[in-house]
Specification:
Layout (H helix, E strand, L loop, with lengths): L15 E6 L2 H15 L16 E17 L4 E17 L5 E7 L2
Antiparallel strand pairs: 1-2, 2-3, 3-4
Length: 106
């Protein structure tokens, strides 16, 4: 088995990264509202197996801002970011959209 390279100057200090999204609750409500606005008002009746219910889905790409806090044992460093996320909302026949997934596109 081959041994890995030794990197000089690399320390064994712990590294912690925390990502915070600006105005998270507002963002969640906005995504659900936009999903509802994009839904089709005229739904066709689809024949389903007994006991099954249709589920609508809506996906939106949204640019999000926030801060990453990187701490390496010496001190924390705040790094602002803007990146794209894909949000997916689902809705059962009767009810409102719920946020069911969030995926970073970077």
């Amino acid at each position: 088995m081959k041994k890995g390279k030794k990197y000089e100057g690399v320390t064994e200090l712990p590294l912690a990264v925390t990502a915070c999204i600006d105005e998270l609750m507002f963002l969640e409500e906005l995504v659900k509202h936009l999903a509802d606005a994009r839904s089709t008002r005229s739904r066709r009746k689809i024949q389903l197996e007994p006991g099954w219910e249709p589920i609508e889905s809506s996906s939106l790409e949204v640019y999000v801002t926030g801060n990453m806090i990187v701490s390496d044992g010496v001190g924390p460093m705040r790094i602002p970011y803007t990146t794209s996320f894909l949000f997916t909302c689902t809705k059962e026949t009767r009810g409102a959209y719920t946020l069911s997934g969030c995926f970073s596109l970077s």
